[in-house]
C-alpha cells in the first residue's frame, strides 16, 4: 500500500471488492428487469387473449341476435298468411322448436368460446 502525500490511496483489495459488488448489483438489477419484462409480456398476452375472446363472443352475440330477429320476422309473415288456427298453432310449434334448438347450439358455442379464451389466457400467463 503506497501512500501519496496528496491524499489517501484506496487499497487494491477494496477496489476489487467494490468493483465486484457493483458488478453483482448490476447483474441482479439486469435479472430483475428481465423477469419484470417477462411478467409484463405474460400479462399483455393474457389480456390480448381475453380481449380476442371477448371480441369473438361479441361478434357471435350480434350474429345470433340478427338470426333471431330474422326468424321472428319470417314467423310473423307466416302467421299473417296462415289459413286457420290449426296452421297457426303448427307454425308456432315449429318456430318455438327451431328457436330452442338454436339457443341450445348458441349456448354451446358461447361455452366453447369462453372455455377456449380462458385456456388461452391461462397458457399465456404461464409462458
From TrEMBL:
It holds the Pfam family Phasin_2. NCBIfam families: phasin_2 (TIGR01985). Residues 31-126 form the Phasin domain. Residues 106-127 are annotated as: Disordered. It comes from the Bacteria. This is Phasin 2.
Amino acid at each position: 500500500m503506497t501512500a501519496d502525500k496528496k491524499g489517501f490511496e484506496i487499497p487494491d483489495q477494496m477496489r476489487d471488492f467494490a468493483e465486484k459488488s457493483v458488478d453483482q448489483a448490476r447483474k441482479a438489477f439486469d435479472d430483475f428487469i428481465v423477469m419484470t419484462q417477462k411478467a409484463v409480456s405474460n400479462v399483455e398476452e393474457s389480456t390480448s387473449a381475453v380481449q380476442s375472446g371477448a371480441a369473438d363472443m361479441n361478434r357471435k352475440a350480434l350474429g345470433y341476435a340478427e338470426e333471431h330477429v330474422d326468424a321472428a320476422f319470417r314467423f310473423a309473415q307466416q302467421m299473417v298468411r296462415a289459413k286457420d288456427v290449426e296452421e297457426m298453432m303448427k307454425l308456432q310449434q315449429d318456430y318455438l322448436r327451431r328457436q330452442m334448438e338454436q339457443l341450445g347450439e348458441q349456448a354451446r358455442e358461447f361455452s366453447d368460446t369462453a372455455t377456449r379464451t380462458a385456456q388461452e389466457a391461462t397458457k399465456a400467463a404461464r409462458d
